[in-house]
Amino acid sequence: xxxxxxxxxxxxIWHGRRPRRMHPRLLxxxxxxxxxxxxxxxxDDLRSAVSNRLELLVDESIPxxxxxxxxxxxxxxxxxxxxxxxxxxxxxxxxxxxxxxGWFLSFEFRDGEAxxxxxxxxxxxx
Length: 126
Hints:
Number of domains: 1
Number of helices: 4
Low-confidence stretches: 70-88
Helix content: 25-40%
Shape: globular
Strand content: 15-25%
Largest sheet: 4 strands, antiparallel
Structural class: alpha+beta
C-alpha cells in the first residue's frame, strides 16, 4: 500500500493528474509501477511482480556477517541474493524500482507499506 509520498507531484500523478512536462510513456510507466507498489502486501509480492527491476539498497556502513560473505564467495553470481540490512519486521529499509526511460521510484518498504516515495532520475556517469 502507498503510505506517503516525498514529492507532492507524485501524489498528484497517483490521483490521475498529468504533469505538463512528463512524457506520456513515462507517465504510464510511473502509474503502472505505483499500482504494483500499492497492491504489494509483502516484499515477495513486489519481487514477483517486477522481477529484476527491484533493487534492494544495502547500507554499506553495516558489515555483513561471515555466513553471507562466505556464501557469496562460493557463488560469485549469487551477489543478488545478499540480503540488505534489515529494518523493522526484518524487511529491507530502502528500495529502488526501475521504471524505465532513465527513472526509478525510490521508497522505504516496511510492514507492507511504501513510505517516502520519490521519482528520481538515474545518475549519469561522466
